[in-house]
Amino acid sequence: VNIWTHFIPCIILAALAMRATTTALLLNLTSLSLCLAGSAAYHTCMARHQHYRAWLMVDVCGIFVIFLVNAPFQIVWGMPCRPDITVPFTAAYYVVGALAIVGSLRGRTPITRGLPMLVLFLMRVGFLVARLLLGRGSTAGAVHCVVSEGWMALGGVINATRVPERWLVVVRARVCVCY
Fold it and tell me: Would the N or C end of the chain have less CB density within 10 A of its end CB?
């Protein structure tokens, strides 16, 4: 399931990226496509593969590509007239991002790999709250940020809890039982 739910959107986003009219859209679509490509490769090669950990790291790094390419757009464009806020926050976000990559790559469980990602998520949510409290940026931009963060949070919860994989085991057991 995860191979197709990652591979098909990867192809669609790559095709859209080739038609992108702005650098920001190109970077956004390319980073999403790279993340999904790495995840599709991981889900394709993970079962009983001697390089399981390497494929897992490809998947994890793809997630960080999104975090470190797309999130700064939300920060800088969220308050374009406030470089006194956006510049230090963006710098701090990249420093924490570098530390989060190291932490996730060293993690041995989904939770220990996900906690550094959660820290970056909380930083982005904190910035969004500051943006809303200061009344900066457009409403449409704020809605875009909320929806983006909601999707990322949902993906993180699904990844950490391994829900689809657990459901598949039950479905496979019921469908594939031979008598």
Answer: C
Tokens of residue 45, six digits: 């090669």
Q: Please give the model's pTM, rounded to 2 decimal places.
A: 0.77
In this structure, are residues 110 and 159 in contact, taking their beta carbons and an 8 Å threshold? yes
pLDDT tens digit string along 117-142?
Answer: 999 999 988 888 888 888 777 777 77
54, 101, 167 from 61: Cα distances, Å: 10, 7, 26
The Cα–Cα gap between 58 and 65 comes to 10
CB 73 within 8 A of CB 51: no
Structural Rg of the chain based on CA atoms: 18
Distance CA 175, CA 179 (A): 11
How many CB atoms are closer than 10 A to CB 62? 23
Q: What does the pLDDT read at residue 18?
A: 93
